[in-house]
Amino acid sequence: MASKLVLNRLRSLCRVSQLSDVRFDKLTDRNSIFSTLQNHVKWRSYSEASQPTPINHPPSLNTSNTTSSSLNEFELAKFSAIAETWWDAEGPFKPLHLMNPTRLAFIRSTLCRHFRKDPNCTRPFEGLKFVDVGCGGGILSEPLARMGATVTGVDAVDKNIKIARLHADLDPQTSSIEYQCTTAESLVEEQRQFDAVLALEVIEHVADPAGFCKSLSALTIPGGATVISTINRSMRAYATAIVVAEYLLHWLPKGTHQWSSFLTPEELVLILRRASITVQEMAGFVYNPLTGRWSLSDDISVNFIAFGTKLVNKDKTLD
């Protein structure tokens, strides 16, 4: 399990409840972030939550940009160029195919707990509406549909949506997924709302993370759930997610990630809080090179995932 240092750090990340006096743009010093948050935070780390049930559904990755206000044209072009490889388990998205069962385990555990569903049943999300923002080729949307959710998948890259539709039509359980080449902001303008909003591996590719999170919040019903996964802006993440994964092992195309676009867990918690989403639980992903598998951990120094709930009282946002 995590060391005392890591656990103390996690205490400053989860269940932010009273942050009205915190100004995100002024918290440039990490020590001030920790000390300010620790005075206002209740928390639950992965190790204190009930352990998610492992599942072996098809994998998940979301790498497109959403909301027209936060679109990054360079990122759109980058992922459009490799759109045909979404379902190639040995292609550019191989690391995310390997990671996906672990991310789905976290999603299944947290959302079943939140919506009071049985995590051990075959279709625990029956009756719930989910949106997969930045759905890519649909490798998250499909297992969510198999677990009973009514799924809408949106992506700003037209090629991704075409690939997703073609693949979903191969299985009667996934052919009902509603795929749209659009943005989260457009869905907000249509006044669409969902029980759960998911954006996995997306926020590090958008131009305006704060605006993106506001759109995710607008799409979430009051009391609903939001799940975001991304990469920490740490030196360890730079070494592993960029130097090793892109330049040494060639798991990902060079230039897939920009270290300066990553968010720290502290920053993500504050951005979400300002968008009326309170982070309830956070976990890290750890890769074991000996087994070739990912697992959930309290180590959030590289890849991490956050589960939050939307405040019922919209007035409780940060100024």
Describe this structure in words.
Strands 3-2-1-4-5-8-6-7 form an 8-stranded mixed beta sheet. Residues 1-43, 53-68 and 315-319 have low confidence and may be disordered. Strand 2 (150-155), helix 6 and strand 3 form a beta-alpha-beta unit. The protein is globular and about 40 Å long. By secondary structure, the protein is of the alpha/beta class. The protein is 33% helix and 18% strand. It has helices spanning 4-10, 30-38, 73-80, 94-115, 141-146, 158-168, 184-189, 209-219, 235-248, 265-274, and strands at residues 129-133, 150-155, 178-181, 194-200, 220-231, 277-288, 293-297, 303-310.
User: How much is the radius of gyration in Å?
Assistant: 18 Å
For the sheet with most strands, the description reads: 8 strands, mixed
The overall pLDDT average reads 77
What is the helix content? 25-40%
Overall shape: globular
Strand segment count: 8
Structural class: alpha/beta
Question: What is the number of helices?
Answer: 10
For the largest beta sheet, what order do the strands appear in spatially? Answer: 3-2-1-4-5-8-6-7
Distance between the termini: 36 Å
Following the backbone from N to C, one meets helices and strands in this order, namely: HHHHEHEHEHEHEHHEEE
Strand residue content: 15-25%
User: Poorly predicted ranges (pLDDT <50, ≥5 residues)?
Assistant: 1-43, 53-68, 315-319
